[in-house]
Amino acid sequence: MTTKIPRARLRAGALALATSLPFALGAVGCAEGGNDVGTSGEQKTVEYPTSAIRIMAPAAPGGGWDLTARTMQKALKDGGLSAQPVEVDNVTGAAGTVGLAQLVSKHNADPHRLMITGLVMVGGVVTNKSAVNLTQTTPIATLTAEAEVVVVPSGSKYKTLQDLVADFKANPTAIKWGGGSAGGTDQILIGLLAKAAGVDPKQAKYIPYSGGGETKAALLSGDLGVGVSSVSEFKELVKSGQLRALAVSGASGVDAGAGTPAPTIKDAGYPVELMNWRGVVAPPGLSDAQRQAVVSMVDKLHSSPAWKDALTQQGWDDFYKSGEEAKVFFDAETTRITAVLTEIGLAGA
Amino acid sequence: MSALLDGFAAVLTPENLLFAVIGVTVGTLVGVLPGIGPALTIALLLPLTFNLDSPTGALIMFAGIYAGAMYGGSTTSILLNTPGESASVATSIEGYQMARRGRARAALATAAIGSFVAGTISTVLLSVLAAPMARFAVMFRAADYFALAVLALVAVTALVGRSMVRGLLSLTLGLFLGLVGIDSLTGQARFTFGSVNLLDGVNIVVVIVGLFAIGETLHLASRPTDVPSTVAPLEPPRGFAWLTREDWRRSWRPWLRGTALGFPFGALPSGGAELPTFLSYTYESRRSPHRDEFGTGAIEGVAGPEAANNASFSGVLVPLLTLGIPTSATAAVMLAAFQIFNVQPGPDLFDEGGALVWALIASLYVGNVLLLLLNLPLIRLWVKVLRIPRPVLYASILVFATLGVYAVSGSVFQVLLAYAIGVAGFFMRRYDFPIAPVILGLILGPMMEEQFRRALSLSNGDFGVFVSRPLTVVLLSLAVLALVVPYAPRLLAHGRADRVPAKVTLGEDD
């Protein structure tokens, strides 16, 4: 374990130099264009898959990770991308850290075991003091992402994010923020926003709810002043005029239900960007050739029509980074999220 | 009204009827199997429906699964005292006693017909009252939920059983189990002993399967000579007359009262299907003219809770369809299904996706009829289960219980946990501790704690939040009344000193 982390850091550092946009695009384009050639070319290759692929959804059936796993399963099958059967199994618990621990400890060096992951797991590792973290896996790719949105009830006095943050700075404990589970994406965003606004993240009064439904109910009943969740969660209530979207958390404005793109948090003057992303990782200990083979399969998956259809059907944004690019991203997110959760005080004593 | 008729037209096609039949049949089966519930089933079936052209068929099937599971859960509760879902626990109390006295047929019939009555009435309520109900439901704040949980807790003291001390100990065990896992407000782990397996707390399905299925099996295995080799002699069948005139007379009021409790609780964003079943059980056991029969198999104790759990489903659809707020695991999965078919539940759904909503509502009516048609004849088959020799029967229960827990969790740890809880359940039976309060504590404990702390956190620690709004005050006053009223006759009698009646809680107080 201890020998693995420095090596991972080294590789990430070396690659950070090379991840300028043209290079990244070139690499992906190359992979997409010449996958079969690439895997059977001069580079030492392995045959993959040689047995059934098992994709672990580290959460209960029906959630986002489960749907991602099952969508992958279907697209791999429909596109004929795996000569072997593809199975999905669910390992529930603790923001996916139970599944993560299993992947790292039990399936070491097995390229046929994949696991869906995401931002929530990065946070879960910190808040649950998990002994294992995402940088110990073999990164394969990020797949999808969704922006977060900050909403207030339609009767609220806040018309813009600046109004809200001005009050938040003046009296940090007066704003009642609410969203999903403690240490999850929603609280992370509030922590990042507080930091950007110069407020101690610890002072933000955050009330966690189990799921978007409860948060919506609490906004409508008047318990909460501000709600944070994924854009799709609040979209209908924003559309019907019961909630007002103040800002979205992505790089560019998206329609949060009002019909026109909502401004980003950056537009409002706070340098915060956070996407709730999902991706896929493999166990540690894969050889370079094995890793390349898995990445190549997922590259093909990403460019397959079946996957593109699935993205449209599910309303997921494409957020694809594969191979080394994914590794750099996973490492950066781990560092950033750990820092903000520690400042909020959720990393525990 | 014409919209509803259009809905029926959409449902009553051969293809959609087939989906409805598949739904109620699968639902009944998963309801019968311990552990595997409707949420899991629908989640697993969801990817299959991606290939369907129209979402109507899939949603009809899902509604059928839910209704079927709610009903199917009562079957094992009644016949074998092994409820598979928390919403069936209240049914098992009197239902199993009825089965032991050879009245399994009547118990299953009142459950089936009660489910039908409750399902149909609550679907009517859903079609008519969805919008105003939703407005009322979102008035509930954290402080109100706390008050509601307190009210429920003091109102269901009847579950405590014959011995107050034992009942409260059972309740405390449930409250404690509810504390295990990550504290939802601070994200910190409690009572997990450093194990990741306990971070998510103790799953209620694991507790139910452990206490009931495994505990009951161990209990029976420990005293093989005390019980007859088959479960219960059956009353002679009377052809197609499942219920006697007397049974009908005693069942219809509990059905209606159960519906009246189940529907609004289902509609509350943090309500659920369990509380109304316990409340219905308590109400019937206190107010029924036959309350002396409670504990030995009173049909009211089956009719009420079964109606309540089925009515709660239509209630759950109120916030789901009108606000996009899922209030149960199953509703959350159905919401995911809606979104996959590009239907966004929310305030505009009745206007925009109206056809689909009315088709879903129509399918609930149709599903209820199919459920009745499927289950009344099946009663003859189910009761045959009781003819299976005990060792074989309970061995297979153990197999299904183990399978169920593993299917839900995919973890051997959870299976071992279920067995450990089963051993606790065995000793509880051995020393006459009631089982139901454990489940009640596990449901109510986390709800009370979370909402209490949430309310205080929102009010900056000001306890005034519990008396500042009329709704909270009314609920808390009702809770005080529920606590005091049972003792009122005794208090009054002290004043008059002529006659000292027992308190009216239960005829069976010792």
List keywords for this structure.
heterodimer; A: D-Maltodextrin-Binding Protein, domain 2; D-Maltodextrin-Binding Protein, domain 2; ten-stranded mixed β-sheet; 19% strand; B: mainly alpha; 20 helices; 2 strands; 69% helix; globular; Tripartite tricarboxylate transporter permease (chain B); membrane (chain B); transmembrane (chain B); transmembrane helix (chain B); DUF112_TM (chain B)
Description of the structure:
The complex is a heterodimer of chains A (349) and B (510). In chain A, β1, α4 and β2 (86-90) form a beta-alpha-beta unit. In chain A, strands 1, 2, 3, 4, 5, 6, 7, 8, 9 and 10 form a 10-stranded mixed sheet that branches. Chain A is globular. Chain A is 45% helix and 19% strand. Chain A folds into 2 domains: 4-145 and 275-344, 3-Layer(aba) Sandwich (D-Maltodextrin-Binding Protein, domain 2), CATH 3.40.190.150; 147-248, Periplasmic binding protein-like II (D-Maltodextrin-Binding Protein, domain 2, 3-Layer(aba) Sandwich), CATH 3.40.190.10. Chain A has 349 residues and is an alpha/beta fold. By secondary structure, chain B is mainly α. In chain B, strands 1-2 form a two-stranded antiparallel ribbon. In chain B, a hairpin with a 6-residue loop joins β1 and β2 (189-190). In chain B, α3 (38-45) runs antiparallel to α4 and α4 packs across α6. The longest helix of chain B has 34 residues, at 104-137. Chains A and B meet through α4, α5, β6, α9 and α10 of A and α3, α13 and α18 of B. Chain B: The chain crosses the membrane at residues 20-46, 58-80, 106-130, 142-161, 167-186, 198-215, 320-343, 355-374, 394-419, 468-489. Chain B: Keywords: Membrane, Transmembrane, Transmembrane helix. Chain B: Pfam families: TctA (PF01970).
What's the arrangement of secondary structure elements?
The complex is a heterodimer of chains A (349) and B (510).
Chain A: H1 4-18, H2 21-33, H3 35-40, E1 53-57, H4 64-78, E2 86-90, H5 97-106, E3 113-118, H6 119-127, E4 138-153, H7 161-170, E5 176-179, H8 185-197, E6 205-208, H9 212-221, E7 226-230, H10 231-239, E8 243-248, E9 275-282, H11 288-303, H12 305-314, E10 317-322, H13 324-344
Parallel strand pairs in A: 1-2, 1-3, 5-6, 5-7
Antiparallel strand pairs in A: 3-9, 4-7, 4-8, 4-9, 4-10
Helix pairs in contact in A: 1-13, 4-12, 6-13, 8-13
Chain B: H1 2-11, H2 14-32, H3 38-45, H4 55-80, H5 89-100, H6 104-137, H7 142-155, H8 164-179, E1 181-182, E2 189-190, H9 204-222, H10 245-267, H11 274-287, H12 300-323, H13 329-340, H14 349-352, H15 354-382, H16 390-409, H17 412-430, H18 436-458, H19 470-484, H20 488-496
Antiparallel strand pairs in B: 1-2
Helix pairs in contact in B: 1-15, 2-4, 2-15, 3-4, 3-13, 4-5, 4-6, 4-12, 4-13, 4-15, 5-6, 5-12, 6-10, 6-12, 6-15, 7-18, 7-19, 8-18, 9-16, 9-17, 10-11, 10-12, 11-12, 16-17
Protein name (chain A): Tripartite tricarboxylate transporter substrate binding protein
Keywords (chain A): Signal
Pfam families (chain A): TctC (PF03401)
